[in-house]
Amino acid sequence: MSAAGALVRTRPPRAERASTVSVARLLRTELRRSPWPWMIPLLAALFFFDPFRTAMSYPPVWGVRASVITNKLLPDFEAFAAGVAAWAGSRDGRRGATDLLTTTPWPVWARRGVALAATMCWVLATYLVFVAVLYIAIARASSWGGPPLWPVAVGAAVLAALCAAGFAAGTFFPGRFTAPLVALGVFLISVSVFKNAVGSTGGYTLLSPSGVVPNPDIGVFYHYPPDLPTAQALFFGGVAVAAAGALGLFAVTGEVRLRRVAAVIAVAGVAAAGTGAGLAGTSRQEAYGVVIPALHDAASDRPVLYTPVCGDAGGVPVCLHPAFRAFLAGTVAALRPVLAEVAGLPGGPVRADQVATQAMNGPQASITGTPPVFHFDMLNTPGSFAVSTAGFDDSLRVGFVTAFVSGSRISGGALRGGTRPAEAQIAVQAALLEVAGVPLSAQRAGLGFGGIQEPPADRARIFAVAQRFAALPSVTQHAWLAARLPALRAGQITLAQLP
Amino acid sequence: MTAAGLQNLAGAAPEAKASWPPPAWLHPAGLRLVRLHLASRRVPAALAALAVCGVVMWAALYWHWVLGSGTGAQSVPIVLEAGTASVVAVTTSSPFGELERAGVRWLPWLRLGTAVALAGAAVGALCAGAAITGDLSGGTLGVLRNVAGLTGIGLLAAAVTGGGLAWIAPMAYMVAAQYAIIAGWTTPWLWPARPPADHGAALCAALVLAAGVAVTAFRGARDPASGD
């Protein structure tokens, strides 16, 4: 081997080291040049006003509070991430430096890649800091479970995709209006997709991470379903990779080998995005989450094991999932009056258990089993979704009394799986509610959860009887119910037969 | 335009005022100055962008991209109003910087006229787009107020961040306004959340516009050396 050969052999490590140092230096320069720091105070203000406050108003359950990452935090970030990336991508073109920079030893793709990486670093770092702040606050309030990572991953994939797509738009259409127009376009797409995704029960619209409204107890009774987040991450990750590949593929200059690599990467990104979209197209809303058959693991359908927390409501245990421990005292207090009214009567529950909320079916309440158990969900918890403590109490009591007297299952605020209550049943329900602290006036206004929906004339007649029944001594009421409850449930008692 | 031309214009203005009735800006050199100023601010491209916003407004109303008829109905129009205000704010960016400030006496008037004319064009584009379908929530008055206030925010931001990044402020304000609409906030400083005929909201928007126009006219956008 010649001396020259030896020299050649010793070069690659040094060149590699120098190249790494150069990349680091260029990245540091790009990080310092990025306009993103201007965004941080604005985004911090938006974060505390919107996602953070909203999350803190939700029940202290990891899953539902973490849902603000995709429903609130991402929409606040999206347009700015894309706009700033477009601004960074259009820099060479805006300054008329494209030709000048073509003569530099670095390939165009590498230079653009470092600039894109710097923008992504800023965006993702800010995003992760906000997520950390949010998760710390949730951890301090929640009593069960741990932080779900899927929303964080999906959010990161969306932001990476928007950064790459925005950067590509800025590179290929440089100009001072590119950044605001990209931001405007992202806002419009976000609003439009949200409109189509909300209430959707399957299909491509569920690709939008901000369109899925989770149950308040998501991840509590059943594992956080990873099907849809997987498809979303695949789609948005694919978009990011495809856009990054396009930056090298459509570079005006560059080595053929590099452009081939860029083409392969772009095609791989398109394939991943297409696969993600295709998977989302097969998605469907099930009772406890969105299922994609090709990705679904039956093991995730198994209920999560837990030890319930219980309180005593006049001798009847009222049990909640430990994630809802904060609401135990309120739930016991809400159910105690109605449980006391029916104590000792046939069909009176020996226990009250919280069950999982079913997606889009609304509040649930039923008395089933032997011995009978009152099952209810916690769709509307006090302090969340504009539900007051009084509203929560009334909702639980109406659900219980309706299920007890009519023997009906309440689902979505309406009676399901049973016949409409007879007039006498409605009158007894109204009387029991009146005694339990739900005034007839509130019942007249309609309680929304099995509330009485009679024509005004009939309602006045029924409520007059209910008023009379409610005015009876509790012993008399109890004795009458004990004797005639089966007949009342069977619809064999008329309004005139009530005392 | 050369420096000599600028000198001539600056020197010719008093003479023209004394000898001939038309004001200096109607002098051929003045017209040329206006044209070059507009070109340097990419006003033709800005007008095209505003026209696109008008078309999108029409499309949004025609194809019902808006969410229902309540607060959701305002989401798309406010996004577009912020978009037009961003375009107006971005035009304040100057490629000449100190050279221009030192050489052109009429610069404040040129900046003032450009900002006001573009804000008017923004309102016109959105109203024209909405007029075709005729079911814009808030009506023309709402568009006028919102665009005026958002433009003022953009112009103020241009003085801080430079014209190129001034679009950030109207967009951020728009996000805050969307939240205010949903949350039912009533402060007049978040004017999109108030009814179109609300005097307090109109006053706040007008004040912000006046401040923005004044800052833009007298100070201009931040020096391009650190921005565009």
Question: SS-based structural class of chain A?
Answer: alpha+beta
State the total count of DSSP E strands of chain A.
9
Mean pLDDT score of chain A: 84
* Proportion of residues in β-strands of chain B: under 5%
* Number of helical elements of chain B: 9
**Biggest interface and which pair forms it?**
A-B, 31 and 37 residues
**Tally of strands of chain B:** 0
Major sheet of chain B, described briefly?
Answer: none
Specify the oligomeric state.
Answer: heterodimer
User: What separation lies between the terminal Cα atoms of chain B?
Assistant: 21 Å
How many domains make up the 3D coordinates of chain B?
1
Structural class of chain B: mainly alpha
Succession of helices and strands of chain A: HHHHHHHHHHHEEEEHEEEHEEHHHH
Give the strand line-up of the largest sheet of chain A: 3-4-5-7-6-8-9
- End-to-end Cα distance of chain A: 114 Å
Largest β sheet strand count, sense and barrel closure of chain A: 7 strands, mixed
Rg from Cα of chain B: 19 Å
Overall pLDDT of chain B, averaged? 82
Can you put this structure into words, describing what you see?
- The complex is a heterodimer of chains A (499) and B (228).
- Chain A is of the alpha+beta class.
- Chain A has 17 helices and nine strands.
- A seven-stranded mixed sheet of chain A has the order 3-4-5-7-6-8-9.
- In chain A, a hairpin with a 2-residue loop joins strand 8 and strand 9.
- In chain A, helix 4 runs antiparallel to helix 7 and helix 14 packs across helix 16.
- Chain A is elongated and about 100 Å long.
- The termini of chain A are far apart.
- In chain B, helix 3 packs parallel to helix 6, helix 6 runs antiparallel to helix 7 and helix 7 packs across helix 8.
- Chain B is globular, with a radius of gyration of 19 Å.
- The relative contact order of chain B is 0.14.
- Chain B has one domain.
